[in-house]
Amino acid sequence: MTTEHIEHQIYRSKIEHEFGQGNKSKAEVRTFWVMVITFVTMFGEIFAGIWTGSMALLADGIHMGGHALALGLAFAGYYLSRRYARDRRLSFGSGKINELVAYSTSLLLLITAALITYESLYRLFNQNEIKAQEALIVAVLGLIINLVSFVILKGSNDFEEIEHGHSHSHSHDHIHEHDIEYEAKSEAAMALPERKDNNLQAAVLHVLTDAATSVAAIIGILAAWGWGWTWLDPLIALIASVLIGKWTIGLMKQTSKVLLDATAPGSVEETIRKKLESASDTEVIDLHVWSIGQGCWTMIASVIHHGSMTPQDYKSLLKGMKNLHHPVIEVQHCKHEII
User: What is the pLDDT of residues 194-206, one digit of tens each?
Assistant: First the structure.
């Protein structure tokens, strides 16, 4: 085996096929515990409903099952994204697994909002007697569980890790000794904007949805119990379903942009363009930047340069962008100076 071949193997071994998704986050751990709480509550309410003969408890237990499923999907998204973070079959990493899960659970939420709307409209025109005392106990219990779950989920930072790994871009810092020197100062700390964790947002939205329906139920039950306003319960639920639908559609738009490789905001492209064109006699003639998951961006650029700079030299200009992974830069050398 030649020296050149050995060096090539060492070079390849140092390059990790990972885009910042291989570390366990606090969001994953907190989602797991909320999922457990929801499952325990679900089984407890179903058992209590069967034991006491309470249809309200039984129905709420079955309803909690839908949220338990959504939270289970959210946790699975985190686990699978971390599990396959270095799988080379995934060209740009596993970040889109979380986006796919967030989009799927958003669809479930949209279906839930549609069902609530239908049921609310039906009950608005076909009012029936409410078993106030029993229903109030169930609604308060559901609200407490959801508030606890909300506090747990919101206590996690979207990007805070509890395990440390090495990213692909980090490996490059140790590989190429011929990189040009780049002054750190304030520019080295510059980073592209971090995307929200849409998977976490979807989980929070599920909890908020359930909490909103519980609040609506409590207000409606008290109004029906105290003043006989049976129409208020379905009316509040109808308003809540419209808000849920609006929030859900917003989340679906965010996740679909990532899934469809939508172009990054203009400010992101401009930041990268300025970095590349900070080198003398350089003009960026083509630039594509897109998100590959939570807090991760990648790019393809083509530059014209009058000089001897290499693609790796240009990559070194982007070192300060901690959440830019696997940049691909084509350098076209020209004989005439760029005006």
Answer: 557 888 888 888 8
Q: What digits encode the pLDDT tens for the residues 235-245?
A: 888 888 888 88
Structural domain ending residue among the three candidates 211, 243, 259: 259
Q: Which domain holds residue 308?
A: 266-333
Residue 300 scores a pLDDT above 90? yes
102 found inside a domain: yes
- C-alpha closest to that of 34 among 130, 152, 147: 152
Residue 330 DSSP SS3: strand
How many structural domains is the chain composed of? 2
**Pair (82, 110) in one structural domain:** yes
Strand bridging mode 328-333 / 282-293: unpaired
Alpha helices, DSSP H, located in 168-265: 168-175, 198-227, 232-259
Q: pLDDT tens digit string along 266-278?
A: 888 888 999 999 9
Same domain, yes or no: 126 and 221: yes
Cβ-based neighbours of 235, under 8 Å, separated by 6 or more: 120, 124, 220
Helices (H), 15-94: 26-52, 55-83
Per-residue pLDDT tens digits for 134-188: 778 888 888 899 899 999 988 765 544 444 444 444 433 333 333 333 333 334 3
The Cα–Cα gap between 128 and 114 comes to 21
This prediction's pTM:
0.71
Output the domain CATH number for residue 125: 1.20.1510.10
Residue 78 lies in a domain: yes
Cβ atoms within 10 A of the Cβ of 39, count?
Answer: 17
101 and 220 belong to one structural domain:
yes
Q: What region does 185 belong to: left with phi over 0, alpha with psi -120 to 50, or beta? A: left
Nearest to 54 by CA among 113, 141, 120: 141
Domain boundary (234, 259, 284) is at 259
CATH number for position 307:
3.30.70.1350
Contacts made by residues 120-126, CB under 8 angstroms, sequence distance 24+: 120/234, 120/235, 120/237, 120/238, 120/241, 121/234, 121/238, 122/234, 123/233, 123/234, 123/237, 124/231, 124/234, 124/235, 124/238
SS3 305: strand
